[in-house]
Amino acid sequence: METFFNRYLSFDFAVGAIITTIGILTYFEASSFPTLPNNHVGPGTFPSMIALLMIPCGITILVKSLIQPFKETDIELKQVLFAFSATLLTPVLCILLAEVLGFSRVSFLTTLIFLQIIRKEKLIQNVLIALLTTTTLCYVFRVYLLVPLPEGTIF
């Protein structure tokens, strides 16, 4: 019985279930928002897009936790605290720096730094991923969602 709980009710399983549930609830709640007249973009567009990305990510984590057996890890508490602190502080720093450096530069640097922390040995791939991600985000916000993003005052 212990192996059942260790294998199927692992941390990854719980995280996958939570992400999937939040994605589904967010999508249905955002779908109830009114749309703007003569415009397909409304207040529920961006939350719906995020929800539609969260659902397959959560399902992927769920399935992966069921397929792969539970493994003991050697993650230390200081690594968890660093990751938690970085996750909480990054949006604050991005908001503070976006007015000065601009959204695209801050987005690129943030993505690149996090990718370098996670995937240390793949600098060229990390730069390309950060560039593609930033370009996609800028396009979606500026062209599709019509959100004016900060350009920055320094450069």
Overall shape: globular
Total DSSP helices: 6
SSE topology string: HHHHHH
N-to-C CA distance: 61 Å
Number of β-strand runs: 0
Portion in beta strands = under 5%
The share of residues in helices is over 70%
Polypeptide structure, described:
It is a single chain. The protein is an all-alpha fold and 155 residues long. 74% of the residues lie in helices and 0% in strands. The chain is built from six helices and no strands. Helix 2 (11-31) runs antiparallel to helix 3, helix 4 runs antiparallel to helix 5 (103-118) and helix 5 runs antiparallel to helix 6 (123-144). The N and C termini lie far apart (61 Å).
State the main characteristics:
0% strand, globular, 74% helix, 155 residues, mainly alpha, 6 helices
SSE layout and pairings?
Layout: H1 2-8, H2 11-31, H3 45-67, H4 77-101, H5 103-118, H6 123-144
Helix pairs in contact: 2-3, 4-5, 5-6
Please summarize what this structure is.
The protein is mainly alpha-helical and 155 residues long. The protein has helices at residues 2-8, 11-31, 45-67, 77-101, 103-118, 123-144.
